[in-house]
Amino acid sequence: MRRFHHCAVITASCLAGLCGLRFAAAQNLPWDVYADPQSDSVCDLVNTTNVQLVVLTDTGEFVIVSGTDVILSHLHVDANLNVTFDDLPFGLIDFAEDGDGFRTLWWLTFQGTVVDLDTLTLEPSDSGRLPSEFHDVGCDACSLYDDPTACTSVLDEDADGVPDEADECPNTPADESVDDFGCSCSQVDEDGDGINDCDDDCSGTPLDETADSGGCSCSQLDDDNDGVNNCDDLCPNSADGVDVDADGCEVETIGGGGNGGISFACGATQGLTLSLTFVGLMGMRMRARRGV
């Protein structure tokens, strides 16, 4: 488990005649933050059955941060995360899954049960309860302190404003803004076409179509601007302003006639195709469809 230095705490006093205990009324000393080697969890809150704690970096003392902030000078955590109560071993702090399936930081006995802390005597005891019996367990103590704005997160390695524990996209480029999940446009490909959103000129590419380097598929392009997308255009490179049919091929009138007659549509796809449409008996008109 990795340890980090975090925000701030503390001044001094006594609590209900228990000297050696100090109220934590201001934030001017750092406390430790711990990274779970088995998950993405990063916590500074150490949970018991009834209070939440942090560990002061310089002294290893516990500080209650639920309710009135109080330094517990008789409880210490060493570099190996073992806890001592009046210099006698009393469990350890470690990550374990709560009842919601999330790994959070606990003060545990050596049997793996959660420690309880008497709020009057401030003495620890074995609650006999496992972490899996708890739900909605907190992980970040910063908001519980007197002045949350004093907390400067050292767990935002890409400095995108989203803490690492909630950041779905680490290493965001410094010049890119991010969404609520810590992702910038260069780190996201919403339509799954292989082109990040920064460089994608065509959002919403159909999943069954291949995109070009600009993130556009044939159904999203109309290179000759004839109103027929490239997928359906049998005659690419139509001249500007010409009339085209549904296949994107130019249509011209090459024969005479009146309001009725026979129309011929001539297309150049796999040879010449003729179709006759009988419109009436009063003349005829011939049209040719020319493709490139």
Question: Would you write up a description of this structure?
Answer:
It is a single chain. The chain is an all-beta fold and 292 residues long. It has no helices and 18 strands. Strands 2, 5, 6, 7, 8, 9, 10 and 11 form an eight-stranded antiparallel sheet that branches. Strands 14, 15, 16, 17 and 18 form a five-stranded mixed sheet that branches. A three-stranded antiparallel sheet has the order 1-3-4, with no helix packed on it. The chain starts with a strand and ends with a strand.
- Distance between the first and last residues' Cα: 68 Å
Low-confidence stretches are 5-28, 144-154, 261-289
Which percent bin holds the helix content?
under 10%
The portion of residues forming beta strands comes to 25-35%
Number of helices: 0
Biggest sheet descriptor: 8 strands, antiparallel
Quantity of strands, as a count: 18
* Gyration radius, in Å: 36 Å
Task: Tell me, rounded to a whole number, the average pLDDT.
Answer: 77
SS class: mainly beta
Shape: rod-shaped
Give the H and E element order. Answer: EEEEEEEEEEEEEEEEEE
Could you list some keywords that capture this structure?
292 residues; mainly beta; eight-stranded antiparallel β-sheet; five-stranded mixed β-sheet; 18 strands; 27% strand
What topology emerges from the helices and strands here?
Layout: E1 2-5, E2 21-23, E3 32-35, E4 42-43, E5 46-47, E6 52-55, E7 61-64, E8 70-77, E9 82-85, E10 88-97, E11 103-108, E12 115-117, E13 124-126, E14 250-253, E15 262-268, E16 272-273, E17 276-278, E18 285-290
Parallel strand pairs: 15-18
Antiparallel strand pairs: 1-3, 2-8, 3-4, 5-6, 6-7, 7-8, 8-9, 9-10, 10-11, 12-13, 14-18, 15-16, 15-17
